[in-house]
Amino acid sequence: MKKSLTLCALLVSCAYSSISHEKKWAEFKTALSDGANLFLKEDKGFQESIKRWQYWKSPDVQAVVKVRTEEDVQESIRFANRHEIPFFIFTSGHGATQSFETLKNSLQIDLRYLDDIKISPGGSSVTLGGGVKGANVAKYLHGHGKQTVTGVCECVGFVGVALGGGHGVLQGYHGFLTDQILSLRVVTANGTLVTVSPTENTDLWWAMRGAGHNFGIVTSLEYKIYDITEKQWSVEAFTFPATAEIFRKVYTQAKKNMAVQPEGITEGGFITALPMPALNLAIIANMPLAQTQKYTQVYRDLGPLAIHAQEGTLLDVPKMLGVDRTSAVCNREHGMSDIRMPVDIPTYNVEVLAQAMERFVQIATEYPELGQSFVMTEQYPTQGVKKVDERDTAVPGRRHDLLIAPDFVFESLDREGNVNEGMEEFALKMGLEVRQMLVDGAKDMGGAMSYVNYAYGGEDVEEMYGEDWRVEKLRALKKKFDPKGRFGWYNPFVEVNVDTENGGHRSEL
């Protein structure tokens, strides 16, 4: 009899829990604006909504809310807080960091409907929705004779890149993406909507520009724009064999170029293993192709296997580089993962970089399961970046001019959708080996940093967020604006306790 009563009580408890679960989500849905969408795990459309660019350490999601208004964002945060549900922000699913691993039973707040673009009456700024893509911004502005600093890859969200600093081919003229921000509309951890600018919430203004992922949800922002002065862009791409001799020759020349690099020229390297080991180097120039030879002849003289030259407008640059919406980079097969391990340094250590690239090629050719891996070198112009005082924003490393990023690509999910943990561990191990070679090679030049938008999440806090004073200031502001660590899943700079038994919510800092 006692066992029967216990079983009955358990069944009643489960039934009540199920009703309570359904009721809370139903109430949440009714609180949203017309046009907003809510998808639970059992709903059609849920799986499509949580698709990501890559799947390594991807967050565990129990529901997706696609917001239409600022009020929807506020309601989403307040609902999640009431029910102790962890949440994160989604615009393109490009966040790739192991800090997402502990995010369980979460609410995905999807901003993609917040995609408005409106140029100011004076034509000096544009108001952008928090879910807009960089490619859409560039296209809209170009149609009005304007341009601004955006990332190059077309499938990446705009605001997330800007909050972490943000690199782009126009930064030589104007600085990082974050340097273009004039003001932001931000929903904070308690659901309050605030304006953040040089005159309002000034301490948050500092933090949002460089560490914004950890402080709030940007629903919109006002952003600087500029007249197009030179419409022509060209890309001259060179393919070299990936040998030790070539690595040394190319990087020696690139180091020389860095010292005199014009504000309209970017050099980008791409080392691959398939179909044959190759060093691909692209010179991206804000000028007609006929004018680029004085910058590119030095690479022609090294005897490349192939040269591919193209020209067009700024809108054509992503396609020229193979990172447009239709590219393989933007359209990966389901289940593919990418562990990216950035190392940012002031300049080239030619010998160490050559050795690290040799080791990368050896790994990627010896292990076919890592054959799609690559290494990026990004040498952007820095004149505009260095016009901004290093202390004015939370962006560190304005003197670390060279970005190197080993990317180990592998199949993270098997055909049944299960995580291939052994492959993840192996790819991480190989990536860390190459990364450590690069980090060790930077010791004599003041050490390496890690661009937070590329960071894999295992770096030291100081590598991602800079000097002690920066980290201390960020932590103090975190206690003020987000004492419970609600925004703490993307490369956090504070240690917080994660209660995995109760929905994965975070305790006091």
TrEMBL record:
Stretches assigned to the FAD-binding PCMH-type domain: 57-228
One GO MF term attached to the UniProt entry: oxidoreductase activity
What residue range is the signal peptide? 1-20
UniProt keyword annotations, A-Z: FAD, Flavoprotein, Oxidoreductase, Signal
The Swiss-Prot or TrEMBL record lists the needed cofactor(s) as: FAD
Q: Which domain of life is it from?
A: Eukaryota
Q: Which InterPro entries match?
A: BBE, FAD-bd_PCMH, FAD-bd_PCMH-like_sf, FAD-bd_PCMH_sub1, FAD-bd_PCMH_sub2, FAD-linked_Oxidoreductase, Oxid_FAD_bind_N
Report the family membership: Belongs to the oxygen-dependent FAD-linked oxidoreductase family.
Name of this protein: FAD-binding domain-containing protein
